[in-house]
Amino acid sequence: RHRGRDSFSQGLQQRQEGRVMMQQIPFIEQCESIRINPKFKNDCVVRAISNATGMSYKNVFEDLMAVGLEMCAWPNQDIVWMEYLRRIGWKKNKCPRNSNGKLIKLRDWENHPDNAIVRNSRHLTAIVDGACFDTWDCTYRPVNTYWTPEVHNV
To answer: What is the Cα–Cα distance from 147 to 126, expressed in whole angstroms?
Structure first.
């Protein structure tokens, strides 16, 4: 499903062994073939949710369309995808900040969750297994807010 998972695993092993010093969140370029329509480029909402949740792109797209119809809004509007994330059990978290109170760039985010959906400068991206998965490198942008799966204690 993702291009680069093997290279990510190798890089992670090298970092753990102390041989390579990389940014806090590595970027893994995602193959654009995940898209239903390769000509449609404004699909970061669908891609990010699909990547972070492990749900298929098509299912996420259809679900967002249904929620959008309920709300009389486009599926990539904030009110729609935020409601969708709430429905599937993801919670919104505050912006991570440095000791001076400034926003942190995605690539510099320490102690980040292993899996998250991140909003950064009018864009959604996914952190999957500790790496940023996207079709372009947006890790230079600050993390605005982020969503993580809710943990239910049994």
So the answer is: 10
Is residue 5 classed as helix, strand or coil in its secondary structure?
helix
Percentage of residues in the chain with pLDDT exceeding 90? 64
**Dihedral of alpha carbons 67, 57, 34, 80, sign:** positive
* Strands lying side by side in the sheet with 27-29: 27-29, 131-134, 124-128, 116-119, 145-149, 90-93
* C-alpha dist (Å) from residue 58 to 18, 32, 34: 40, 14, 9
Axis crossing angle, helix 57-71 with helix 78-87, rounded to the nearest 10 = 110
Backbone region of residue 18 per phi and psi (left: phi > 0; alpha: psi in -120 to 50; beta: other values): left
Predicted TM-score (pTM) of the model is 0.78
Residue 85 φ then ψ, to 5°: -60, -40
Name the residue with tokens 């949740």: 53
Section 106-123 average pLDDT: 94
Number of H helices, E strands in the chain: 4, 6
12-26, 56-70, 81-95, 122-136: range with lowest mean pLDDT: 12-26
